[in-house]
Amino acid sequence: MSIESSAGKMAILTLGCRVNQYESQAIREKLAAAGFQDAPFEDLCELYIINTCAVTGESARKSRQMIRRALKNKEKNPQSLVCVTGCYVQGQFQKIESDPLLAEVDLIVGNAEKGQLSQALLSLLQTPAEKRERVIMLSDISKSRTYSPLSISRNKNTRAFLKIQDGCNSFCSYCFVPFVRGRVVSRPYEEVRREAETLVENGYREIVLTGIETGAYGEGLNEDLSLAALVEKIASIPDLQRIRFGSLKPSVFTEEFCARLAAVPQVMPHFHLSLQSGSSRVLAAMNRRYDRQEEVWAIERIYRYFPDTGLSADFICGFPGESEADFQATAALIREAALLHAHIFPFSPREKTRAAAMPEQIPEEIKKERCKQLLEIAKSSSLAFAEKRAGKRYRILGEKVSGGCLYGYTENFMYTKTPVTKSCPSGRFYEIELEAQAEFSVESMVVSGKFLQEC
To answer: Is the pLDDT of residue 1 over 80?
Structure first.
């Protein structure tokens, strides 16, 4: 491929969470408006943008790996620009000048400055390659109290993610996030409403409200708003048929919160809980500010208000000092909660966090074995969840048709595969009857369905 053919092409690679995915899409839309077109990361492009992650040691390693790949592409085309943003570079705030990997990067942008990234790239392009100097837009995120102005109008999926807040105030003992995302900042309601309306106008019928600490929405706003109040307000948008959420702590699910959500028909019976452990002792060491009993109460409330709920949850395996009894308490919670999905992660020590310096660090082989056991329990729970609902009718939002099968999610977030013999455009709703057959691809379960009708 010639260097000339790289002009006007951008490759954006995103690592990490849904918030990063959302922010990359916002950057993509701004650059597309300036005439740039998406291209694979392997192509010769005029712009390479890596939106990094650093939540775990592995994600930081992958971020560095992708930066190296972008710089190798730049060697083939010195006219190109390499931009690195996100949590990896934010975590390098105090030592950015001494990081040899970032020495050849053209533009380094912190999380608080992502709203300015597109314009900074376009300005750099006006400078001849031989005269360019590295630009660093990176500030102390702990002092930021302003929501970064990013928005989207489209999404690659049939459901659209809508970022409503940033940052976290919890400082769990294992978590690096507050150091790279800062304190909680909530997005003004008018902006959330306007973006939701735009997404619906563009054909999206399902919106996922997301953030770093989604349940903290409302903090820092002058108006008296909470996550429940926000849901009640945006539910009035015509043609918005489904509302879901990013990860929520069990402490969010008070009696009032559950009752208010249950009164909103657009709220889907699916919630992702950030549980992390089933042991009160480990939860205290994690500084999670709730115990096992509060987890159980939250789960019971959810099932009471949303009887057919699909619950998913995150768990950390091998936290420092985790005994066999602590581990078994987590295993028991997965079984008792009848989870649709469980995301299992081995503990990863991160700099600046208290857990990294805790005694009784668990050996890697024990973490690996415990993760394996929890994954097997979670798989059994998933299968039992699907089998219990065989014969029930569900309404799916079509995601794609592949190999003669329609794929989509039910109200309670079961991913389904339904043979079809006619055209079924994505983004529309279809009624199916769930069958008992389920299969796993990596850790994801796909449940078979029988097509009934478009609805």
So the answer is: no
pLDDT digits (tens, 9 = 90+) for 410-445: 999 999 999 999 999 999 999 999 998 888 876 689
The residue type at 68: R
The pTM assigned to this predicted structure is: 0.94
Q: How far apart are CA 66 and CA 75, in angstroms?
A: 14
Query: Is 322 within 8 Å of 346 (Cβ atoms)?
Result: no
> Where in 197-260 does DSSP place strands (E)?
206-210, 242-245
Q: Identify the bridge partners of residue 82 per DSSP, sorted by sequence position.
A: 48
Helix (H, G, I), strand (E, B) or coil at 205: coil
Sign of the torsion angle spanned by Cα atoms 264, 270, 275, 278? positive
> Mind listing the domains of the chain with CATH numbers?
4-143 (3.40.50.12160), 159-388 (3.80.30.20), 393-454 (2.40.50)
Instruction: Characterize the bridge pairing of strands 429-441 and 393-402.
Output: antiparallel
Q: Say how far apart CA 29 and CA 198 lie, in whole Å.
A: 14
Decide if 176 contacts 54 (C-beta within 8 A).
yes
239: left (phi over 0), alpha (psi -120 to 50) or beta: left
Q: Is 33 helix (H, G, I), strand (E, B) or coil?
A: helix
Q: How many helices (DSSP H) and strands (DSSP E) are in the chain?
A: 12, 19
Q: For residue 244, what are the contacts with CB-CB under 8 A and spacing of at least 6?
A: 159, 206, 207, 208, 209, 267, 268, 270, 413
Are 317 and 371 in contact by the 8 Å Cβ rule? The answer is: yes
The tokens of 231 are what? 């849901």
Model pLDDT for residues 369-417, shown as the tens digit of each residue: 999 999 999 999 999 999 999 999 999 999 999 999 999 999 999 999 9
